[in-house]
Write a structure and sequence with these properties.
The longest helix has 19 residues. Helix 2 runs parallel beside helix 6 and helix 3 crosses helix 4. With 161 residues, the protein is an alpha/beta fold. It contains 6 helices and 6 strands, in the order E-H-H-E-H-E-H-E-H-E-E-H. A 6-stranded mixed sheet has the order 2-1-3-6-5-4, sandwiched between helices. It has one domain: 3-Layer(aba) Sandwich (Molybdenum Cofactor Biosythetic Enzyme, Chain A).
């Protein structure tokens, strides 16, 4: 099995302030560990572009995460700036990933159309914005897990590293 190095970033003002438990980020960490993936970084940031961008850069450039999963901050609220922070630091976007997520999630709930999540590449790392909430984040990661493993495999033509 190919080693998969993952970073998890929770984007929430209340979680960053310690006012609520980070169930979504911890659910992603648990999901990754159950698949045998190595979680090399886990951060909780307020929804501020500078903090989010700095965390994403640290996970990709310093921690060498092949995949960075964000949760939260992708809705319509003015505080939801994760897509903007992701786009700011990415070299290229990978729209097919979030198109797949939205299409599959809309089968369950049409409100998925309001998701503004993006996916992109930075320094050979893939960053994917996932929804907030432990169930939603886990479900969307479950939709992608096998393909993400294939993408980081050095034997695959779709490898980005």
């Amino acid at each position: 099995m190919t080693e998969v190095r993952v970073g998890v970033l929770t984007c929430s003002n209340t979680r960053a302030q310690g006012l609520a438990q980070d169930t979504a980020g911890l659910a992603l960490v648990e999901f990754c560990e159950q698949r045998g993936w190595n979680v090399v970084a886990y951060h909780v940031c307020p929804t501020e572009i500078e903090c989010l961008s700095a965390s994403l850069i640290e996970m990709t450039d310093v921690d060498s995460a092949q995949i960075v999963l964000t949760c939260g901050g992708i809705g319509l609220d003015t505080m939801d700036v994760v897509p903007e922070a992701t786009e700011l630091i990415c070299e290229r976007l990978v729209p097919g990933i979030v198109e797949h997520i939205r299409a599959r999630c809309m089968e369950q709930d049409t409100k998925a159309m309001f998701s503004r999540g993006v996916a992109g590449l930075r320094e050979g790392s893939l960053i994917v914005n996932l929804d907030a909430g432990a169930d939603a984040a886990g479900y969307t990661l479950g939709l992608l897990a096998e393909d993400l493993e294939s993408a980081v495999s050095p034997n695959q033509t779709c490898s980005f590293r």
